[in-house]
Amino acid sequence: MKRLLNHSALVAALLLAVGASACQPVPTGNTSVTNTTNTATTNKASPSATPTPTASSAISAANLPVTLPVLDAMFAEEAFAGELKSRLQLTDEQIARLRKIARDETAGLKEGAGEDHQGSTSEATRRAAEKISEVVGAEKAQAFTAFVGERWSGGEAGAAGAASSKPNSVPTDTRIVVNAPAYRMDVFENGQLVKTYRVGIGYPEFPLPQGQRKATTVIFNPTWTPPDEPWVEASGKVKVGEKVEAGSPLNPLGPVKIPIGSPSLIHGGKSPAKLGTFASHGCVGLTNQQVLDVAQVIGRLGGTEIKPEDVAAYGKAKTETKNVKLARDVPVELRYETIVVEDGRLHVYRDVYDKNTNTEENLRAVLAAYGVALDSLTEQERAQIMAALTAMARDAKGNPTDGAPAATPTPAKNANEKAGKKPDKKDGDRVTRTVKGQKEVVIEIAALRGKGYPAPVNLSGGELSPQKKAAAPKKKK
Q1: Which domain range does residue 346 map to?
Q2: Do residues 303 and 425 share a domain?
Q3: How do residues 367-383 score in pLDDT, each as one tens digit?
Q4: Do residues 166 and 315 both lie within one domain?
Q5: Do 407 and 376 fall within a single domain?
Q6: Which residues contact 474 (CB under 8 A, 6 or more apart)?
Q7: Is position 71 within any domain?
């Protein structure tokens, strides 16, 4: 993302905040690019013209959360305003108003040291729905949201294959799978899970999208160009349009970024503390060490070998951007599954983007996929599961999720907003950086033994399981 995501980069660098990120699409017309020579590998993945169909590949764009910062990111794309105007038959004045409210909302967001905002995706989505309806009218608001959701879900990346009705689908091809509520990224090679990474995901105000994406390029030492936003000039540290070089302390992307369909990236720059929590603006966040490893893995999957000595050479030339074009695309599947059967256990994850997914209906569908009926379980198992669903059916700040993002208006948050003025920097919203309360419940279910999605393999950036964590001795403060 260009505008909104670069905002976090600058704030992070200036305020020394932990792990702020900037997610932006791959730049066009980049002249400082060098392509590596494709080399045969000993463990080459087979090309996959039609990726394994999965349930999360067929996400309804209308059900994806569309926030004003997401809309601001869309306006950063040159063709977006024209396509939006044509699709919905909007006027130039309406386009200008939409652009302004999206920019003003983004400019008011900040994440610095101090008290966490603790907002939610539904609040941000509800607020966007109200503002958009004011501009385009109620009749066009739904079509507007569907159009933006389609772009946000990566529809242009080209999801292939028919959708599968089976939850927790295990790929049979070569692909990357990211499940946001589990903060987990898996690498599958020819249907075999070979590597798992613990990751940071998008803030609730900037949710990680869902859908089928693809990686085509690995970019070492990416640069960053500050956008035309009021906070850029106010900072006094960088100038609008003046490129921040690779390796600069003001560049938040780390040593590698991997575009996976505008406006999302897989990129580095994260501290270990940001793994397993909110860490980015619609992107998959990794530590620098992790992302350098991912770059080599994706290179192998894409038929373009990236050797350790190549990575070392790129690291020595930190100010020189290198684009490594993959010989073949690597599918990247973004999922949102909060009920997962994994290696014989039932995992119920927190509904961090408040999508109302931890329901009995979804639970029954997941169990049925493995030939298990909820009613056939023991009374104790059912009680444990229902308690877990209730506990995890909460948004990031601990409020129960109800699946009704546009039901009631969000109250104005400060005096400027009540007066209809542009948000002030000092009292603007903070992004939600942490999850309040427990993130996961794991339950042993006898009928599920030997079934489910595979457990993590060669886990990078992991932590103890809930059971082991509870049994571990407490550290003295």
Answers
A1: 339-458
A2: no
A3: 999 999 999 999 999 99
A4: yes
A5: yes
A6: none
A7: yes
Answer yes or no: do 263 and 179 share one domain. Answer: yes
Residues 352 and 207 in one domain: no
User: Is residue 470 in some structural domain?
Assistant: no
Whether residues 276 and 345 share a domain: the answer is no
Q: Which residues of 64-101 are buried (b: 16+ CB within 10 A; e: fewer)?
A: bbbbbbbbbbbbbeeebbeebeeeeebeeebbebbbeb
Residues 330, 361 within the same domain:
no
Q: What is the CATH number of the domain that holds 17?
A: 2.40.440.10
What are the tens digits of pLDDT across the range 379-419? Answer: 999 999 999 999 999 988 888 886 433 333 333 343 334 34
Q: Are residues 330 and 349 in the same domain?
A: no
Q: Is residue 472 part of a domain?
A: no
Contact call for residues 259 and 268 (beta carbons, < 8 A): no
Residue indicated by tokens 């106010």: 234
**pLDDT tens across 179-211, in order?**
999 999 999 999 999 999 999 999 888 888 888
C-beta separation of 176 from 251 below 8 A: no
Number of domains in the chain: 2
